[in-house]
Amino acid sequence: MRWIVLRQAVISCLLAALAMPGVARTRPHYGDTLRVEIAGDPWDRPNGLARRLVFEGLTEMGADGNLQPGLAVAWTSENADHRWQFRLRPGVHFHDGSPVTSPAIVASLMASCGSDCPWGAVRALGASLVFTSDAPMPQLPALLAGDAFLISKGQAADSDGGSGPFQVSASANGVLTLIANETSWQGRPFVDAIEIRSHRAIGEQWLDLSAGRADVVEVPVEDIRQAQQDHLNLAISDPVEVLALQLGESGVLSNPNLRSAIAFAIDRNAIANVIFQKQARASAALLPQNVSGCAFLFPAERDLNKAHELRGGMTPPLLSLEAGGSGAIQLAAQRIVLNLREAGFNVQLSAPGAKPASMHLRTFRVAGADPASDLAELVRAAGQADLVMGSDPPAVYHAERAFLDRRVLIPVAHLPRAYVTGSRVRDFHLRYDGTPDFERVSLEAGK
Questions:
Q1: Is CATH 3.40.190.10 correct for 2-41+166-237+418-443?
Q2: Each residue of 430-440: pLDDT tens digit?
Q3: Core vs surface per residue 95-119: b (16+ CB within 10 A) or e
Q4: Which of 260, 283, 368, 447 is the most exposed place for a label (fewest CB within 10 A)?
């Protein structure tokens, strides 16, 4: 109740602040510091806000979700996608001034995935990189745009080891300060610096925004409708995250019928409509409808009778469900526990620090607009064997269907991402994957 009252007070302050007249808008203004607040850690893997500001990949997903050059300017494949050659962008330097060379990139890539790389071997060849594999690698250029393969010097996690548009200036008392990279090959960002204040509760973020202490704050999915109704400066993406239940294929859930029974027992519509306030889309597909166009072919309706039939009277041992993330994710986990108990399973939520759980409720990010690449990356992010498939829609659909039939990853819902900005923020947009495009943001002079 206190948060409801507090939220209404914050919204009133925000409306008053955002209604204040602003200066005439001309072209973007260089300078000033953008203040961002988040609930998580800016270096989180994957998709921590700081990572793509400091580090870069050989390729990257553009704001529209299409693959574009990054540290590599061009790439070609040979031998039916068993061999790829990437030509590097000349004249790029790490933040410490040292050149970004092909041997440095090879070292970074090998350190990032060790023995579990989506290629057999990678080597430096002059100003190029050559990837080879015994299996075809049709999605390699898109996979290299992923967070796992961002290039850093010496695998620095939170230092000046990158080459991106911003570099680390300071990190203290929960505030990470990034300053503009004056020599970025992408061009200098408009703002001089970005301050990212981490581990801030949503209520604290909104209070700071209303008081003028923050410029960009997060909006949980379940609060998007309220922000829309209150006409805040809201940026919202298409569905870009997959909420899914991950199961093991061994141990207590080695029986595929039990895993299928779990899939039929989940009430996806209740989770999407009640817990996420109709801002999520219930789905039994991995890829959102806006990416693949095929999500409607995976029925998302609950079938409790089918769940009982598949369980076949078996009484499996106690199952545990672990969930991380926001309060809504925790509520979704609680609802899944109740759903499974109704289907005859003995389930409990896993306490922090308890023994490894038999099920995990996780979110996975959809990176781009290419269904084949997105599916390959989602499967890889789930720790499963790399998928090899064609890039045409039927091939992607059949690959997704075959993978989901294993019931090791059970989709629940597709979620958007959203942020609210203050009145002095200009040209704030979300990329295709729901991350803020901070490189192009500017701030009103004098505010």
A1: yes
A2: 998 899 999 99
A3: beeeebebebbbbbbeebeeeebbb
A4: 447
